[in-house]
Amino acid sequence: MEQHQPTNPERDNTSDQDIEDDINDAIMTSESPVEQRIQDLQRIENPTNEEKAELQGLYAFPENPRGAELITKHALGTITQEENQELMDLQASRHQAEKEFGRI
Predict the structure, then answer these.
(1) Which of these, 17, 48, 50, 53, could form a disulfide with 75 (CB 3.0-4.6 Å)?
(2) Is 79 a domain residue?
């Protein structure tokens, strides 16, 4: 294995593999922007209704920004009929996927 040429004297014996391991560790422990936002909202001492609604959306659809937005609008009472139908469709689709996943 090729030895990394250090630019920092403290890292004289650092191999390429050590550096790659450090990078992978940093990636594995880093939080997604959604996880970070959830934590930020949870730390708020007296959250507004908007912040509470946003947190509901992120909990419900952490991997789906549109779904999270629709839940937020629903919680605030600002959702349109078309958006409400879209939300119902998303929830039904997710429920079906969870049902199928449970059978595997």
Answers:
(1) 53
(2) yes
